[in-house]
């Protein structure tokens, strides 16, 4: 039976996984690549931010981490893809920022998927600008580093060469077998990600459980167009406990929706990737962090309506 190569993409919240997926889809024209997206929270954002292309399949697993509540959905989604008769060249599984990769790999290399897939390795995106803070936030961030076969040290333009060297040294102590590459906006050759990795280790980490998932996701939405300046002010003033925020908003005076990205306090309102599909509708954000006041966040977002 012919097997389909599968690669797991991991990395803590805001490290650049979706940027990497879009680069791979753009560079690998002519290949049929299926992307399985996992979201942390009830609102699917990442699938909308992936540039669609004729022949591509995007399967979104919303509301839960693939290594826990959504693990059965992951197996089902991937099995459906590879059993559908589609002539796929590769499957990319983009885990949520809070996913422990060990149990995910265990699902990909074990039955029933082992007969259909050829696991090529785990790629972890590393946020150089928030490296220390991310390790302090969650055990999952640590597990993502130790289980990687390729470490993409992203956002290199936001730190000094000295900091990059220290990060590289720290990663070698954590995971000496993994290859390292330093990037800006995940600009890495596709073959580095899609070809089998010599260091690939199929073992799952020994520790895994609810203690890895101390963060929660809060969804906020508004029916009307938003005032851009008011929105920027509100985003910039979010409590430090908000580690990540992302979403799609409709701004007054603009004909196209904008993508909101907040990573550890840094705010960006950008354009949608070319070819992405977004249904017209409400502005909505997912905010991820610890000890979040849901009512206060929803009131603040609603106050941004123009």
UniProtKB/TrEMBL annotation:
Family matches, as Gene3D superfamilies: CobW-like, C-terminal domain, P-loop containing nucleotide triphosphate hydrolases
Superkingdom as given in the UniProt entry: Bacteria
CDD domains in the record: CobW-like
Organism: Pseudonocardia adelaidensis
Similarity remark: Belongs to the SIMIBI class G3E GTPase family. ZNG1 subfamily.
InterPro entries, A to Z: CobW-likC_sf, CobW-like_C, CobW/HypB/UreG_nucleotide-bd, P-loop_NTPase, Zinc-reg_GTPase_activator
Domain CobW C-terminal: from-to ranges: 215-305
SUPFAM superfamilies in the cross-refs: Hypothetical protein YjiA, C-terminal domain (SSF90002), P-loop containing nucleoside triphosphate hydrolases (SSF52540)
Reactions the enzyme catalyzes: GTP + H2O = GDP + phosphate + H(+)
Protein name (Swiss-Prot/TrEMBL): GTP-binding protein
Nucleus among keywords: no
Pfam families: cobW, CobW_C
Residues spanning the signal sequence: none
Protein keywords: Chaperone, Hydrolase, Nucleotide-binding
